[in-house]
Amino acid sequence: LKVEALAQLEQVSDPQTLNDLRVKYLGKKGALTEVLRGMGGLSAEERPIIGQVANDVRGAIEEIIESKQQAFQRAETEQRLRAERVDVTLPGRNMPQGGVHPLNKVIAEIEDIFLGMGYRVAEGPEVETDYFNFEALNLPKNHPARDMQDSFYITEELLMRTHTSPVQVRTMQSMRGEAPLKVICPGKVYRRDDDDATHSFQFHQIEGIVIGENIRMSDLKGTLLQFSREMFGSQTQIRLRPSFFPFTEPSAEMDVTCVQCGGSGCRMCKQTGWLEILGCGMVHPKVLEMGGYDPEKYSGFAFGMGVERIAILKYGIDDIRHFYNSDMAFLKQFARN
Ligand code: PHE
């Protein structure tokens, strides 16, 4: 039995057969178990001798099974290690790199300029109440100037904000009458417009507001000149033209001299040599009051600009829709500067 078992076990080359053989010899109905079971019929002298032999046989079989098992395990581990080997000397795979969207780039640039002048950045909800978007900005219901900003209403009291000025009101109120206040508010705004090369129902604005004692129109003009030169080049000139906004008095529109567009030339330059880029003015006393400031004690200025328009002028872009349709050829031009 031993010789036969050992010979068979010696030749085993896979774990399954090994297990079958273990059952065959050592299992409940195995050959060796049978021998042990038959011991009852032996004489008292024979029993220890046969028992001894049977135990030796079992020991020998167990030993060879054990060593075979270990060998199989080693082989399996080795094979796995070989299969999972990583060649760390192989060159890496190139991952395509994303870039900052040109609009976000311009927003960051404008933010940087104003942060450098001591402003902080405030944000607010895109779904706004009629109160913050219009009423607190001196645009009561049925005011004709509401037509200047055709709106997407959600309910009678809720709409998609038409400008980021409501964030200025929210910020004013959060200050509880404390000055100075200097913030800029970037964000998406929505107006009912038919999309074309120069219009989009959704675009971006950055508006700014300063409130303090003795804030004058000359402060506004100096601030805007500094901003324009940092944005468009140190030679840039500005001019203010009288205008109207319900939330500012007096109100103005600001033009800058033609921007240097770089290699492709400056197509956006008008014959007049001036380009309109933003609206501004001195904060209306009623708006100060609704924002929680005493108009007798404090004054302020505010301005607001369209980010797309600035980006179009700065980079010489011919169609506002380029910003929104995720055309890689367009976006890649901005990936690296
Ligand atoms: N909120 C105005 C607009 O969207 C811009 C503006 C802001 C004008 C602040 C004056 C002062 O048209």
Explain this structure to me?
This protein has 337 residues and is of the alpha+beta class. Phenylalanine binds next to β8 and β9.
Features:
elongated, two-stranded antiparallel ribbon, cytoplasm, single chain, seven-stranded mixed β-sheet, alpha+beta, 337 residues, EC 6.1.1.20, 9 strands, binds phenylalanine, 11 helices
Number of helices: 11
Proportion in β-strands: 15-25%
Please summarize the sheet with the most strands. Answer: 7 strands, mixed
The main sheet orders its strands as 1-4-5-9-8-7-6
Structural class: alpha+beta
CA gyration radius, whole angstroms: 42 Å
Count every beta strand, where a strand is a DSSP E run of 2 or more residues: 9
Low-confidence stretches: none
Name the average pLDDT: 89
The run of helices and strands is HHHHHEEHEHEEHEEEHEHH
Helix % is: 25-40%
Shape: elongated
Distinct compounds present: phenylalanine
- Ends apart, CA distance between termini: 84 Å
Task: Give a quick precis of the structure.
Tetramer of two alpha and two beta subunits. It contains eleven helices and nine strands.
